[in-house]
Write a structure and sequence with these properties.
By secondary structure, this protein is α/β, with parallel strands linked by helices. It is built from eleven helices and 18 strands. α3 crosses α4 and α4 packs across α6.
């Protein structure tokens, strides 16, 4: 449940100060309306007096046609939509004038460095990656320049937010190390409805966590390393899926990839890569050999499964539980 204190207006002003939004914006809404990404950016636009064009569903070519026809200035996409947009043939993308776009906001799921670089090369310096949740509001924002400087980043803290990266004992981790991300601001939920146990498990000294693991790089940028429940422990070493996936996305024959832990008698768990290739046939042995040159020890996938598509929910998040279940079958 959420309460709305008077300080909320200051939180909103901090967000407006960070986002490249204007009173004359024309925003294209294509994400599901029940998701915070959709109604959040619709709300920002209407609060400032802009116009909103609502599209039922997402078709990449129709999206481009609407940007041209409606002279769209801002939109919010999940990375899956961005990927589908860039997979259109270049001849199709060139048919449409998208120069009116000033900001494409990406969120709701991890944005790989490789996908961000492709999007910026195609659309220009208009891509912004944000991090937040229903429980914590909007917490970080990465500008196009930050995305290029720190591939895979969720960016810097938006003013009004505080963050801590904590180990299992509640101690702050050293710079560069991975810890559970806790945030504090005036937009936090007061707790989960009729679930005091879940609320207590998520709170530490007024800071709230949704279970994401993160680290801060040498540029001071935050990076999500995955959900705590998705962490793989192989040979006693913590393997963070997001770190491995960030590397594997750069293989030239990979369209999409996700990694999960598979039970292993010797290692406890081993890394399995679930790959959607750009074309078939896909050489799994060559992919593993390539991975071994890019990754160290337990992070290297020991096996690969090739899929037509990754299982995802309607907002584009990969369903790791389905991949783990498939691994057990």
């Amino acid at each position: 449940m959420r309460t709305f204190p008077k300080e909320m207006i200051w939180a909103m002003l901090h967000v407006f100060d960070e986002l490249p939004v204007r009173v004359d914006d024309r925003h294209l809404a294509v994400c599901p309306m029940y998701h915070s990404t959709a109604f959040g950016f619709i709300g920002f636009t209407l609060t400032l007096g802009g116009a909103v064009v609502i599209e039922r569903g997402f078709d990449p070519e129709r999206f481009l046609a609407l940007v041209e026809r409606e002279r769209i200035t801002t939109t919010a996409l999940v990375p899956t939509m961005l990927h589908r947009l860039l997979e259109l043939p270049a001849s199709v993308r060139r048919r449409y004038d998208t120069r009116s776009l000033r900001a494409v906001f990406s969120g709701g799921a991890p944005l790989s460095g490789a996908l961000a670089e492709r999007a910026i090369a195609e659309l220009g310096h208009v891509l912004y990656n944000f991090y937040g949740s229903t429980e914590t509001g909007l917490n970080t924002l990465a500008t196009p320049e930050e995305l290029l400087r720190s591939p895979g980043t969720i960016g810097h803290l938006i003013a009004g937010n505080e963050a801590r990266l904590l180990d299992d004992a509640g101690r702050e981790v050293a710079p560069g190390e991975t810890g559970e991300l806790y945030v504090k601001n005036t937009m936090l939920v007061s707790g989960y409805h009729r679930d005091d146990e879940a609320t207590r498990a998520s709170m530490r000294d007024g800071f709230f966590s949704v279970g994401d693991l993160a680290h801060v790089d040498r540029h001071g940028m935050f990076h999500i390393d995955g959900r705590k429940r998705d962490m793989i422990i192989s040979g006693g070493v913590n393997v963070y899926p997001a770190e491995v996936e960030e590397v594997l996305h750069r293989h030239p024959e990979v369209a999409e990839v996700a990694v999960v832990g598979v039970p292993d008698d010797e290692w406890g768990e081993r890394v399995r890569a679930c790959v959607v290739p750009r074309a078939l046939p896909f050489d799994e042995a060559d992919f593993i050999a390539w991975s071994r040159r890019q990754l160290a020890g337990p992070k290297v996938p020991r096996e690969v499964i090739v899929l037509d598509e990754l299982p995802k929910n309607p907002t584009g998040k990969v369903l790791k539980r389905d991949l783990r279940a498939a691994a057990r079958d």
